[in-house]
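agent> fetching stored inputs for the flavin-adenine dinucleotide docking request
agent> found them:
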Amino acid sequence: MAVPIDTAELSGALTGPTFVPGQVGYDEECSTYNLLTPLRPVVAVGAATVADVEKAVRFAAANGLAVAIRGGGHIVAAPSDNSLLITMRRMSGVSLDVEAASVRVQGAALWQDVLDAVTPHGLAPMSGSSSTVGVIGYLLGGGQSPTLGRHLGWAAEHVTAIEIVTADGRARRITADSDPDLFFAVRGTKGNFGVVTAVEMRVFPITRVFGGGLWFSGDDLRPVLNGWRRWAATVPEEMTSSIAIQRLPPDPALPEPLRGVFVLHTRIAFLGSAAEGNRLIEPLRRLAPLIMESVADLPYAQAATIHMDPPSPIPYVDRSIGLRELNAETVEAFYEVAGPGSGSTLASVEIRALGGALSREPLTADAIPARAVPFQVFAFGVGPLEQAPANRVALAELIDRLRPWGHERRMVAFLSPDEATDQSAIRLLYGEDLYARLAQLKKVYDPANMFRINHNIAPAT
Ligand SMILES: Cc1cc2nc3c(=O)[nH]c(=O)nc-3n(C[C@H](O)[C@H](O)[C@H](O)COP(=O)(O)OP(=O)(O)OC[C@H]3O[C@@H](n4cnc5c(N)ncnc54)[C@H](O)[C@@H]3O)c2cc1C
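agent> prediction call returned; pasting tokens
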């Protein structure tokens, strides 16, 4: 039950708008990419300035409200009863320092905003598979770039400064030198330590990528997945790949051969020459008859088209698991739960090959727990609320079936909203030592656990 609070004074003090339930604009302000997880805060603050964020955090503290944060709105943690939601849409600026190859990105800028700002200057950011994901939410979850990650590491490793409003309602600019503990803790824990109003990060002199997709029939799951896992173990760090078992909708926006069919979508991104890339992927082309291929030399501005992620909001439920290994028995497990004849209702079961620089220790310590994980699985089922229970069952079956090869660690970025209340899963994900250190820091920076509408690290007692 939401507590009644008087927001008039707060509204009068802010540059940006506020919205309370029932007010025009409330639903839109609280909407997210996942149509099944709208937020329902007591009040939504459309922050327009850093001072707005400071005032909103102080107001929440004074009224005993939790603070929820909406950046790009892609994987929201939990319903926001008794919370104040800070939406960052009105703070989405991107400014580039070409000489320094550094970009400053505000609270809810999307990867498309950064790609638009930096690629005309021959530079590339550590962007993800979708250009509509929020940059800061992605970075705070670690950020695995399916184009640059295996070559350059986790995106959060390339963040050089963070502007954050902490639970005391104070804005600070932190770096590895000024605040080593907080700088460590923020990168890998999403919104647990405050509202990030801007980050500065490195961008790289990369102008193109050889990339795209190879589509096979889902009926060829065994030869394709076995061939891909063997191939992925041999390729250089400049090559990144993933494979998704997909039941595609009959969507006219898809190319004709892909409408309404069951496919295996192999995605590749190679930073070397097109000739070398062609040579490297040739064995993949021979794994089974190809339905379609889109691999080409692309300007980096188009890197986020490779995965063909749905650009607009959809209703879905999701789960993820890290894998220690992917062997012939694991392939059989995928075949049984998601292959032809499985009756699976899942729209997509994706396996990303990590490794390379993603498995190396960073120069500056961070809280990213997924370094030792060679494969990350992310699966989702699409459909209205009535279909969510069946999709949750299918997701649970998939995760249970993969557990024998499961890794305790996995990507924070892909944690499901369904897991936000599962404290034991969050502890397991970070491991005892890292979780204990983060819980101590949470006690220092957010002792009342105001930032708890997330995959929460509870303050140490
Ligand atoms: C289609 C799709 C593709 C994806 N591809 C990738 C990928 O290639 N690589 C990868 O690593 N991840 C990927 N992700 C996961 C993505 O990085 C996370 O979902 C990320 O949290 C999205 O951030 P957001 O701002 O869009 O979402 P939001 O829902 O707005 O934020 C999610 C959480 O992040 C935190 N947060 C967001 N903004 C701020 C802020 N300004 N200050 C403090 N906390 C904040 C909050 O805890 C918030 O609850 C993908 C997700 C989707 C849905």
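agent> quick read of the result: The longest helix spans residues 388-402.
agent> awaiting further instructions
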